[in-house]
Amino acid sequence: MATTKFDPALRNTSVVVALGAIMTLIDSTIVNVAVHVLGRDLGAPLATIQWVLTGYLLALAMTVPVTGWAILRYGAQPVWLTALSLFLAGSVLCGAAWSAGSLIAFRVIQGVGGGLLVPAAQTMLARQAGPQRMARAMAVVSIPAMLAPALGPVFGGLLLDHLSWRWMFLINVPICAVALLAAVRLLPPETGERERTDLDLLGLALLSPAVALLIYGRVEGVVLLAAFVVHALRRRERALIDLRLFTDRPLTTAVVVLFCYSLAMSGVLLLIPLYAQVVGGRDVLGAGLLVAPLGAGAIVTMALAGRLADRFGSRRPAVAGIALVLAGMLPWTRVDAGTGWPVLVAAAFVMGLGHGAVTPAVLASAYPSLPKPAIPHATVASTILIRIGSTLGAALLATVLQSSLRRVVPATAFAHSFGWALGITAVALLPALFIREPRKGA
User: Fold this and answer.
1) Model pLDDT, residue 1
2) CA-CA-CA-CA torsion sign (129, 133, 139, 140)
3) Does residue 2 lie within any of the structural domains?
4) Using the 8-state DSSP alphabet, how is residue 437 labeled?
């Protein structure tokens, strides 16, 4: 009988993965609050400094598609160690940047490391955990993703208040160094043969720019993605991503749930700090702190949801989590100028309680029926689609908000935008009801 406990090997892998992932994800938001400071200190216009953000996100998005092939060819651990080393090197170089151009170039190095890291981390945990411990393992890898939107602006605001902007990058160095040392000491040896397959260069040339263009809302991305689908169906198992994986019902159901859910939550994580600044008159740090209760709520339920999903199946924790998110989101759809901050903090905390249950439970439902060699490709495919959903959601709700602000007062515009998020979250509830529960005795 397979063990259901976290043995030392899985526990060590979980610690190493969490250490490595937290700063790479926080770094995707920490720089958002420093745009004007960077422009002033580096003597560059806003249009140039925006590439400090854009370059990182583009490099990250365009690197993800190659991760599945790299893991099968070289192993998840070597890819993870390479990714973290690249991110560490990029952080050091960013801290030493002497111009806007050099900072943009070094942020691209960071982005390449970040793009490789999360799919490799998920693959290591999924392979090692097995079906009986999958949800708890996915809870570990979900922690950084849930905390990053809340902690990034807070850390950025605190650092800029007391230190140079360079410390937004240099703070990564000791954490990444500790993660690398811990990996060398704690990670168990990786077993299994490598696949000596050639890289699907045409698939990479189609999919990587398709992901980048879709993230920035360009129609050309749809054309390239369609071309990749045609190419991948012809190449089958030799494609960059084997699209036949989506004939697996649990994987497809999980990806649909997370795509819809990410569409809504990414918008919420954009709207809350904006509401704090536009309606509440708070500064950047105060806006970030209003997101913090959401992260706190997620931490409370994450481990419990993982245990419940491993024991009883993913459907009930996932559905209950989405229901809690809907309950916490409802007060935000009714905000007005007189809404008290305690109400909003409590609502954000309730959303967090649900949020902490959704992602680990749904991710865990995606992998158990897949053979181990398919996990890297499944991880990459789901990562790409969830990232596209997150970006499209933020763009959609930003557009809704901008349109509403032209017609009504700010508080009403935000209430309307949160209403859209509520509706999209409700859509995510529908496929969640079809998550397959494990057969008794399995």
Assistant:
1) 38
2) negative
3) no
4) P
